[in-house]
Specification:
By secondary structure, the protein is mainly α. The protein contains 11 helices and no strands. Helix 9 packs parallel to helix 11. It is globular and about 50 Å long.
């Protein structure tokens, strides 16, 4: 794999549908791509990082944007593995998804041509997966907020609310559990819409 292959994998994300929306009953033309989601997650991450900084929290905006940009890159190789596809395996399903995506990340980063760059990108993904830094927590919160905004948009397009009831509740719980205060404030605004 070469650096050009790495870049091609980024482009591949434009063609990979977010499979969770398919399992929720959306028609394929209404399903966003992984790249669509990544862009939204980046913009939301930037907003949350800036809001947190305005509150006096020390945040590396550069690290937030690196992480948000790369957080789903493994899906260029694994595709978007919906939780519902693996749910029948219980906890083993989540572990299996993590193992597959971790292997894909290692494969992708080997192509960077530079060991230093490869390690840096791999460290970004590992930080995201551990979710212990403020930057990772911001990206995880943005990832969840993106889902909530997408649900609101789909409801506006005419999809029935009951298609998303479980997903909405599960995602709201994630945002409520985050230590990112600006995400919780944004949730209050979104809940009025949802």
């Amino acid at each position: 794999m070469t650096l050009i292959d790495f870049l091609s994998n980024i482009i591949t994300l434009k063609r990979i549908p977010r499979s969770g929306w398919i399992t929720h009953g959306l028609s394929l033309p209404d399903v966003e791509s992984v790249a669509d989601h990544t862009f939204s997650a980046c913009a939301i991450s930037l907003l949350l990082a800036d809001l947190e900084r305005a509150r006096g929290v020390r945040v590396s905006v550069e690290q937030v944007l690196r992480m948000a940009t790369l957080h789903d890159l493994a899906e260029a190789l694994t595709f978007d593995i919906s939780k519902s596809y693996l749910s029948y395996l219980g906890k083993r399903g989540k572990a299996l998804k993590g193992e597959i995506e971790s292997s894909a990340w290692k494969y992708l980063t080997r192509s960077m041509g530079s060991t230093r760059l490869s390690e840096r990108y791999l460290n970004v993904q590992n930080e995201y997966e551990r979710n212990t830094t403020i930057e990772a927590q911001i990206v995880h919160a943005a990832d969840s907020i993106d889902i909530l905004i997408q649900i609101i948009e789909l409801r506006r397009r005419g999809y029935p609310s009951d298609l998303f009831t479980g997903l909405w509740s599960e995602t709201v719980k994630k945002v409520k559990a985050t230590p990112i205060q600006s995400a919780k404030q944004l949730l209050t605004v979104l809940s009025r819409e949802g």
